[in-house]
Amino acid sequence: MTLAGAPTGRPASVTIEGRMFPTNRGGLCKKGWTAAELLDAGDRIVHPLLRQPDGTFAEASWTEALDQVADRLADSRRRFGADSVGVFGGGGLTNEKAYQLGKFARLALGTSRIDYNGRFCMSSAAAAGNRAFGLDRGLPFAVEDLDSASTILVLGSNVAETMPPFIAHLAGARQAGGLIVVDPRRSATARLTDDGGGIHLQPTPGTDLVLLLGLTHIVISEGLADEQYLRSRTSGYDAVRTSTNAWWPERVQATTGVPVAQLREVARRLAGAGGSYILTGRGVEQHVDGTDTATAAINLALVLGLPGSSHSGYGTMTGQGNGQGGREHGQKCDQLPGYRKISDPDARAHVAAVWGVDPAVIPGPGVPAVELLGELGQPGGVRCLLVHGSNVVVSAPDVTAVRAGLTTLDLLVVCDFFFSETARFADVILPVTQWAEEEGTMTSLEGRVLRRRQAIEPPPGVRSELWILHELAVRLGAPSTFAVSPAEVFDELARASAGGIADYSGLSHTLLDTGIAAYWPFTPGSAGTPRLFLKTFAHPDGLARLVAVRPRRAVSEPLVGNTLTLLTGRLLEHYQSGAQTRRVPELQDARPAARLQIHPATASRLGIAENDAVLVSNTRGTVRVNAELTSAMRHDCVFLPFHYAGDECANLLTERAVDPISAMPEFKRTIVSVTRAGVLEVTG
Amino acid sequence: MTAQPLRSAQPLRVVLVGYGPVGARFVEGLLDTVEGGTVALTVVGAETDDAYNRVLLAEFAVGRSTRDRLETTDTAAARVAGVSIRLGEAAVGLDRVRQTVRLDTGDLLPYDRLVFATGARANIPTLEGLERSRRSRLEVSPSAERMDRGTAPLPDGVIALRDLRDAAALRTAIESRARLVVLGAGVLGIELALAAAEQGAEVVAVYHGDIPMARNLDTGGGRVLASAARRAGVVMAPHSRAESVLLRHDNTGRAHFDALVCADGKQIGGDLLVLSCGVSARTELAAAAQLTVSAGIVVDSMLRSWDDVNVFAIGDCAHIVERTDGDAARRGPGERPSSERAPAARIFGAPSGLIGPGWRQADWLAASLVREATTLAGPAAAAGAADAAAATSAALPSVLAAERPSVVMLKAEGVDIVSGGDYSADLWDDAHEVTQWADPARGSYVKLVTEGGVLTGFVSAGCPRLGAELTLLFESRGELPADRSSLLHLDGTGAAESVGSDPLAPHATVCWCNGVTVGRITEVVAEGQRTVECVGKATRAGTGCGGCKGRIAEIIALAAPVAAI
C-alpha cells in the first residue's frame, strides 16, 4: 500500500491507496484501508513506562528506563546465569529487527532462550519444507504463477478472509472448476467453490493427514503418479507408496467423513491437464501432527510431480506480515541468520566472523516457544523476559498458564506501541515505532524481499527497536556492534546470510529501492530466484525427499451431550491477537466481540438460540461469548476467533501439547463443552 | 548382524504363525525390540509371497490396481532387522508342554510366546461336484500347499477369491472377456461383481435370499443396492439356491466349470465360478493342541488363549470373548480343559472379519509384548530401548479396548452403501427412535436407529455424504442433531446452504475483502452513488480482489434502474 499526503505529517493528513503489485494487484482489504488509524490511536504509548510499587505505571525518561532494564538483566545473568533471561520475538518484526533481536540475545544477553510467535504459525510447514526440499520458502514460486493453474488444492486456509486480495490468484482455477478447498467449516474460501468453481471437502477436525494419505493412495492406485519424476527427482517413494497402501478410499471415508466419490474426483482432478498447486495453511499445520500433515501434502505433490516445475507446485501461505523473513534470520531458538542451524559448526564460524566474535561465545540451541513460556518462573528457568512484537497472553496456548508464568517473573520488558494485554503484565514498557514510521524490509510469502519506507515521523518519545537494542547492548558491554540504521543492519544481515539457505547477500536497501523483484536466494550479481527447484532441490543430493508418515492414534472422546470440538481461527476484520485491529473503530464496530459459531441443529439440541450467551469450557478455562448460528459449521464442532482477550480469549481453552518435530501447539482441535449461560451444569 | 550387548536375560522368543496383513502389522510393532535384541521373532507363513493386503485383492483381481498396491509392509526391512521369516512353510504341530511348534519341514521352533494370525479360509459350499474339495474342519493339513483344500483341489474355473493365485485366475478370466458367476452376495461377492462389471465383464450374482448383503442391510437398503447393481450391469439372480456344479471335461479328461444348477432347476452357465460364501477361521492347529476354539481361537481381552497364557491369537482367527465359566484360575500348558466347562457352541460372537480390528489387535499385542520383553531384559535394556517403544508401552491400556459393532461399507465406485450396528428396530418401536427416508426412484434410502440421541444402528444407501457422516457419528458415539432432517441436507443440491442462500438478500455479503453487504451498497446507491467506482469509494466494495465488481454493477442496476439506463 502507499501513503499519500504530507510525507512527514501526522496521520490526520495521511490517506491510504492501494499499490499495483503482483500479490494484491492494487487491492486492499478492510484491514489495509483502515491501517492509518492505528498511527494515532488513542492509547498509543509515547513514553517509557515503569511499574511503580503500587502497581501503577509512571512515565520515565529513556535513560532511566534503559539503565534500569540493563542493570536488572545484568544482575539476573550474574546471579542465575545467562539463560535466566529470555527473549520472545514476533513474525511482524522487520527483517532488520528480527535479525538484530537474534544477535542481541546471543551476544548481548548470551542466552539461548529466544523464540518467537512464528512458532505458533509457520513452524510445522517450515519443518516439513526443510525435511522434504532442504529449504523452506512459503511459495517456492511467484504468486502470479497460480493465476494460470487449472487446479488449486487449498488445505486449511481461509484466505478469502485472512488475505482477501489473494483470491484474485484463484480466479483462473475457479474458472476451470478446479478450486478445491479442504476445511471443516464452510468458510468464505470454501464458498468460492460454489457455482461450479470447484469442490469443498469438509472433513471432521484432525483428520487431514488421513485425507492426504487417501488422496495419495488414489493417485498411485489409479496410475496417476508421475513415475518418471519420482525416479529422477525424488527419494523415498517406495516407503511412501507402501505406507499409503493401507489407506484405501473407503477406510479414509470412514475416518474423515469425506465420501469416496469426492476423494476420487479430487485425486483425478489434481492429476489432470493444466497446472496444479497444493497450498497449505494453519488449519492443517496447527496440530500436534502438523509437520507430518504438511509432509503428507508435500508427498502428494511430489507423487503428482508438481514441485520444481514452472506451472505447478506446493506452497504454504504465511500468516503474519513478515512470517517468512521473521523465520529466517535468528529469532528461532535453533537458528542463525540465513536460515542456518545454530548447531552447525560451519554456520557458527561464518556468523561469528561477521559479528567479529569467537564462535564459542554464541550459545547453543534454546527451547521452542511453548517450552520457553513454560519455563517462566520455574526453578532454573527464565526469570526475565523481553517481548517484542508479540501478545503472548492472547496468542499462546493455555493463556491462563502463560499469565501465571508472567506474574512470577523478576522482570518483564514489553516493547509495543499500544498498551497490549501482555504490556499490562510488564514491569517496563518501551514504546516503539510502527509500520509507517520506520525503514526496513519484510519478506513476503513468496520469498520476495520488500522495502518498508518511512512515511511519517514517529511521535516524539517513541524509539525504534534497533536503537533500543543498541542502547542496551552498550550498557551490557556486549561484544560486536549494534547498528541503529536499518540500511546498515540490512547490510550486515546480508553478509551474515551469505552462503546460507535464505541468502540475501546480493541485496541492499539501495538495490531494493530500484523496485526490483527480489526473490531469495539472491547472491551478488544474480537476479534472484523467483522459482526454486527447477533443476534440483536443496538437499545435497539434489533430490526431494518423500517421508512416510502415519497418523498417530488419537483417543477421541465421544462427542455426546454438550461435548464438541473447538476450532480457532481468524475473522476478516481482525488480525492475530487483535492488539491493533481492535483499536480501529471501523473494524471493532463490525466485530466488537468474539462469537461462538455453531450449527443451528447442534445449537437447537443444546437449547441455544442466536445471540444467546454461552459458556465454552474445559479443564483449562472458560470462555464467555454469544452464539452465532451458522450452517457453515459441521454438526460436531464449533469455532471461536482468536483475536480477543479477557473472557473471550479462545486460548484459555487450547492446550500446551505440541508437535514433536516443529513444537507447534495444537490450536485446531480442542475438546470443549458448550452450555447456555445461566443454565446450571448438572453433573453426575 | 552386530554383536548384542551382554544382558542378563535371553531374548523373549516369539513365534508368529501366519503372515497376512495382521501378522505383518504385528511384526512391525516388534521391529525395534528385535533390532535391540530383546525379542527373537520367527514368522511362519504358508504362502510364498510377502504379506499383502487382502482387502484390496478384488481391485487387483479385476485389474484396477497393481500388485505393488497390495503391499502394506516392508518384509525385506523386517529381515534386515533380524526377524526370521519362513515363507512357504506350514506349522503342523504344537506341543504346549515343550513349547515348540513343528513345521512341515520337520523343524521344531521353540517359543516363549506363540501368536496365531492364521486368518480365515474361504468356505466351500456343499455343492454336488465340489464334494472332494471341501475339507474336514478339524483336520491339520500336512503341508502349506494343502492347507486350505480337501482331498482334491477345486476344479478349473472355480475359485474362491482369497489369495494371489485366485486373483491371477480371475484377472485372466476378465481379460479374456469371460462370463463370471459369483455365488453369494455378501459384501465381498457384491464388491467383486460390481468391480468386474465396471471392467466390462459379464457378471451374474447368485444368492438365495431376497436382497444382496442380507447380513448387513435391511430390505430397503438391499433393494436400493440391487437396483444400483443392475444399473451397473450386474445380472442379479435372487432366490437362487445353488445345488450343484456342472463340469465339462476337456479331451485330457480335466474337469472345468460349466454351469451352476439351482434348486428350481435353473442353470446359470459361465466361464468362471467365484465362490463368495463366507470364511472360516483356521483353527485346526489350535484345536488339535486342545485350545478352546469356537468361531475362532477363543481368547480373552488380552488376546490370550483361554487355556494357555503363552498362546495368543489376532485377526480373523481370533475369537475374542471374556471367560464366562467363572474358572478364574488358568490351567497350565498340557492340562486339559475341564469337561464341565461350557461347550464351544455356547460361546457368543465371532471374529469381525475386518482389517481395522485386526490391526488394532496386532498393535496392542505387539506393544504388550514389547513392554514384557523390555521389563524382562532388565533396566539396562529398558534404558537402551527406543523411546517410542517405551512411550507406547507406558500409555498402553491393560486390556484391548472392546470394538464397537462394525460399520460395513461397500467398496464400489458410484454405489454408496454403508451400514452399522443394529438397525432392526421397527419404525414404530417404542424403545428406540427410528428415522427413515426412502426415495427408491432416485436410489436413496436411509434408516437411523437412536437411543438417547446416540446412533445405535443405521443403513445408508445412495447418500454419500450422509453415509460418511453417519459412520463418524456411529464410531464416535456422537449425538445426532435434534433436527434429523438437517442430516439429509448433506446430500442435497444446496449442501449446507439452507440459510442465507439468496444472493440479493440485504445481509448477503458482496465484497468479501471488505465485508460489504448488499444492504450497504443499496444504501449508498440510494444516496446517489451510481457507478461501481463511486460505490467502491463510498463503501470500499470491490477495492480488494475486485472479483465482485460484476455483482456490484448488478445491484446498482436493480437498485436504481432508471439511472442505470
TrEMBL record, chain B:
<dbReference type="InterPro" id="IPR007419">
    <property type="entry name" value="BFD-like_2Fe2S-bd_dom"/>
</dbReference>
<keyword id="KW-0560">Oxidoreductase</keyword>
<comment type="pathway">
    <text>Nitrogen metabolism; nitrate reduction (assimilation).</text>
</comment>
<keyword id="KW-0411">Iron-sulfur</keyword>
<comment type="similarity">
    <text>Belongs to the nitrite and sulfite reductase 4Fe-4S domain family.</text>
</comment>
<keyword id="KW-0349">Heme</keyword>
<keyword id="KW-0479">Metal-binding</keyword>
<protein>
    <recommendedName>
        <fullName>FAD/NAD(P)-binding oxidoreductase</fullName>
    </recommendedName>
</protein>
<dbReference type="InterPro" id="IPR023753">
    <property type="entry name" value="FAD/NAD-binding_dom"/>
</dbReference>
<dbReference type="GO" id="GO:0016491">
    <property type="term" value="F:oxidoreductase activity"/>
</dbReference>
<dbReference type="GO" id="GO:0051536">
    <property type="term" value="F:iron-sulfur cluster binding"/>
</dbReference>
<dbReference type="InterPro" id="IPR036188">
    <property type="entry name" value="FAD/NAD-bd_sf"/>
</dbReference>
<dbReference type="Pfam" id="PF04324">
    <property type="entry name" value="Fer2_BFD"/>
</dbReference>
<feature type="domain" description="BFD-like [2Fe-2S]-binding">
    <location>
        <begin position="510"/>
        <end position="557"/>
    </location>
</feature>
<keyword id="KW-0408">Iron</keyword>
<feature type="domain" description="FAD/NAD(P)-binding">
    <location>
        <begin position="13"/>
        <end position="323"/>
    </location>
</feature>
<dbReference type="InterPro" id="IPR052034">
    <property type="entry name" value="NasD-like"/>
</dbReference>
<dbReference type="GO" id="GO:0046872">
    <property type="term" value="F:metal ion binding"/>
</dbReference>
<dbReference type="Pfam" id="PF07992">
    <property type="entry name" value="Pyr_redox_2"/>
</dbReference>
<dbReference type="InterPro" id="IPR041854">
    <property type="entry name" value="BFD-like_2Fe2S-bd_dom_sf"/>
</dbReference>
